[in-house]
Design a protein that fits this description.
Shape: globular
Number of helices: 12
Number of strands: 0
Largest sheet: none
Oligomer: single chain
Radius of gyration: 19 Å
Strand content: under 5%
C-alpha cells in the first residue's frame, strides 16, 4: 500500500462513525486487539503467535467465532503444510474460551447455547431468512408509531448493511478470502436476525474496512484529506449523541 498506509488505517479506525465504542464500556477495543493481531501473524505464517490473540478475541465476544472461520479460510488459502500445525494450534486456542463459556452456561443454566435464549428473551431476536429480516427492518423505518430517534436508527442500520455488503464485494473481487470469510459470516449473522440491530457498531470490528480505505487513499493525499474531513465530524457527532444518552448505532 505504500508508506504511511498503516498510520492511515489506524486513523480511519479512530474516526469511524461508531468509534465511540472503542472508549465506551463495550468489548470492541479488546476484540480488535485480538482479531487484528491474529490475522497479522497468520498472514505472515507465524501461526503460533496467533494463538493468544485468537483466544483473546473469542473470549471477548461471540463474533470471535467468525474470526476463527476467516482464519481457517486463510490457513487453507496459504496451502502450506508447514503452517498446518501452527494453524491448528491457533484455531484450537481460539475455541477454548468458546467451549469454556458453553460449559459454564451448561452448568448454571443447563444449556450450552443459553446465549441464544438471552437473545430471544432479552432482545426478542432470533434467526430468520434474510428477506424477512430486511422486510422487518424496513417496516420499522416507516412505522408511524416509532419515535424519530428510532426511525433514524433503523435507517442507519440499512445503510450500514449496504456498506458491509459493498466491503464484502470488494474483498471477494480482490480474492482476500480470509478477510471475506470473516466479513461475510459476520454480516450473515447480522442480516438474518429478526431485524437489523447494531450493524453500524459491529462494522467497527470489521477491520478489513480500514485496510481497504488505506489502499484507496494510498499515494493520493487529496483522497485522504477528503475522507478525514468527512469522517471526523460524523465520529464527533457519534460521541455527542452517545454521551447524551441517545442511541443511533
Amino acid at each position: 500500500m505504500g508508506e504511511g498506509a498503516g498510520r492511515h488505517a489506524v486513523l480511519y479506525l479512530v474516526l469511524f462513525p461508531t468509534a465511540v465504542f472503542l472508549v465506551a464500556a463495550y468489548s470492541e477495543a479488546l476484540f480488535l486487539a485480538g482479531a487484528i493481531a491474529a490475522f497479522y501473524y497468520a498472514r505472515r505464517n507465524q501461526w503460533m503467535y496467533a494463538a493468544i490473540p485468537c483466544a483473546v478475541a473469542t473470549a471477548t465476544r461471540a463474533a470471535g467465532i467468525f474470526l476463527l472461520l476467516g482464519l481457517a479460510v486463510e490457513l487453507i488459502r496459504q496451502r502450506d503444510s508447514r503452517n498446518l500445525k501452527g494453524g491448528l494450534v491457533a484455531l484450537g486456542a481460539g475455541l477454548i474460551p468458546v467451549f469454556a463459556y458453553g460449559a459454564y452456561l451448561a452448568r448454571i443454566k443447563g444449556d450450552f447455547f443459553y446465549f441464544f435464549v438471552d437473545q430471544r428473551e432479552g432482545w426478542h431476536r432470533g434467526f430468520v431468512g434474510p428477506l424477512e429480516s430486511l422486510a422487518n427492518t424496513w417496516e420499522l423505518t416507516t412505522a408511524p408509531s416509532s419515535p424519530t430517534n428510532w426511525i433514524l436508527t433503523w435507517r442507519f442500520e440499512l445503510v450500514a448493511a449496504a456498506v458491509g455488503l459493498i466491503v464484502l464485494g470488494v474483498l471477494l473481487i480482490r480474492r482476500e478470502w480470509g478477510y471475506a470469510a470473516y466479513t461475510g459470516t459476520t454480516l450473515a449473522a447480522l442480516m438474518t436476525s429478526t431485524w437489523y440491530f447494531s450493524i453500524p457498531r459491529m462494522l467497527l470490528s470489521v477491520f478489513p474496512i480500514y485496510l481497504l480505505l488505506a489502499g484507496f487513499t494510498a499515494g493520493r493525499p487529496g483522497r485522504h484529506e477528503l475522507l478525514v474531513a468527512v469522517m471526523a465530524p460524523v465520529a464527533a457527532l457519534g460521541v455527542i449523541v452517545f454521551t447524551q444518552g441517545a442511541w443511533f448505532y
